[in-house]
Design brief:
heterodimer, A: 118 residues, mainly beta, 4-stranded antiparallel sheet, B: 105 residues, 6-stranded mixed sheet, 11 strands
Chain lengths: 118, 105
């Protein structure tokens, strides 16, 4: 199984709502990532978890709260979002992280959740 | 300054043409990744390479670590190759700006 699944596929939420995005993989990967992608732009890294611990937080606003309850599951909790947070949110996983010099592990991406904040 | 530069940004080709997309980077790396993103969002990893050349079907990727440059070639292009092609480097996956390819029948 080389699949990363994400739910929901689409989400529309108001600025006062609280919602969560879910990502799951069963490849035994120990690194999981959240990316945000605006239209016609490359993905931007938000968070990286390694062995279920937050390894990288790319100065993401606190209205985005990641959680990694176990090695297969990654959540992104959303609260009090702004319309400019509307984007495609992509999850990915890889076997691990390399410490220096760059990632030698292939990343597997989920299909994404298209989020619209009204 | 973006650590990863791609060219061209947009490319339109006739079916059957040979296509080259270039990627230059400024950071030291162990490996470079080429990714494909179709309209609708899904990203697929095409290649991960740290030296030389890799081939998969009609796709060929090359890298020159000394010159910090990689190319992705598509031979005998087909309309189903139409997608955005992205190179990515580094531990935190610095992404290039992407090349939007359209192959016309």
């Amino acid at each position: 199984d080389t699949e990363v699944t994400q739910t929901p596929k689409h989400l529309v939420m108001g600025m006062t709502n609280k919602k969560s995005l879910k990502c799951e993989q069963h490849m035994g990967h120990r690194a999981m990532y959240w990316y945000k992608q605006k239209a016609k732009k490359p993905p931007e890294l938000m968070f990286v978890y390694s062995y279920e611990k937050l390894s990288i937080n790319e100065s993401v606003p606190s209205r985005f709260s990641p959680e990694c309850p176990n090695s297969s599951l990654l959540n992104l909790h959303l609260h009090a979002l702004q319309p400019e947070d509307s984007a495609l949110y992509l999850c990915a996983s890889s076997q691990g992280l390399k410490g220096t010099g760059g990632s030698i592990y292939e990343q597997y991406f989920g299909p994404g959740t298209r989020l619209t904040v009204t | 300054k973006n650590e990863v530069e791609q060219s061209p940004q947009n490319l339109t080709a006739q079916e059957g043409e040979f296509i080259t997309i270039n990627c230059s980077y400024s950071v030291g790396i162990s490996a470079l990744h080429w990714l494909q993103q179709h309209p609708g969002g899904g990203i697929v990893s095409l290649f991960m390479l740290s030296s030389g050349k890799k081939k998969h079907g009609r796709l060929i990727a090359t890298i020159n670590i000394q010159e910090k440059h990689s190319s992705l070639h598509i031979t005998a292009s087909h309309p189903r190759d139409s997608a955005v092609y992205i190179c990515a480097v580094g531990n935190q996956f610095y992404f290039g700006t992407g090349t939007s390819l359209t192959v016309i029948p």
